[in-house]
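Hi, here's the filled form for the chain we discussed.

Project: internal
Contact: R.S.
Residues: 338
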Amino acid sequence: MKLIKTEEAVGQVLCHDMTQIIPGAYKGARFRKGHIVTAEDIPVLLSMGKENITIFETDENTLHENEAAEILCRLCRGKNMDRGEVSEGKIELTAGIDGLFTLNREKLNAVNSIEELMIATRKGDTAVKRGDKLAGTRVIPLVIGKEKLKRAEMIVGDEPIMHVLPYILKTAAVVTTGSEVYHGRIEDRFTPVIIEKLNAYGIEVVHHSVVDDGIDHITQAINNVRGKADMILCTGGMSVDPDDNTPGAIKRGGASVVTYGAPVLPGAMFLLGYYADGTPVMGLPGCVMYAKATIFDLVLPRIAAGVRLTKDDFINYGEGGLCLGCDICTYPHCPFGN
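And the returned structure, exactly as it came back:
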């Protein structure tokens, strides 16, 4: 810190709050710690009786917190993200569209490992609405060495840490399996639930068929809708009983299965596969029909955004993949999937 004449303080950084008193009208901080003094500030400071002020000493090797925050913001801000104004070294990032919030965890952790830098975010790979808060950036001190920001820039490179991806899959075909539904013995209560969940991401069901439990019939029903929708959803017949033929029918139809089974409750019997043209096909266990949140809710926004999931993605769902079965469900504002 250094004491200098107020008239010489333009461009310097205040190291403490400066209080202004206007008798009978105002008393409070006129200038905050960290404020960069401008030419317009000088008469105000002098009117406050500040002939000299204490400033942080900066040089060609240091940055003010606001300048550093701008760099961190640039490293974070990818597609479809809005930013707020810099304030006290902090910048907030929000979603510019409804979509899937994604981030590069390796880059995020590497930048956060640099002393005195911080980026805080919401959970990645989750659905967000336009205007939702995504991240906040700042540096810890008022003045920081440029070298630390250069290290962060080297880590991140040309591709920002975060993006919001739009939902690009817009149509779905639903194949309902089960002899009890096919023969009209019970009402199909599964499909309305699926339609509601898809609508949340702008996905329209353009084809719906109901078949019995025969594996040949299920296979044919799936083949009939291939190429007619962006995704295929099969409901029913996903357990391990002898007449649960949906997984076998999906495989028989030529899908490359990523996983049959997931470390998530509810939703352990979930299946995801892809056809050669990239169309995803899912086998949905019965829990999707009655549970508020399941594995389907975790993967649907990613699939709707065109993200191709891998086996490792499902392995990573294990931590946080246990629904606590709360009396009042607050998903997604809860630990499930987080």
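Let me know if anything looks off before we file it.
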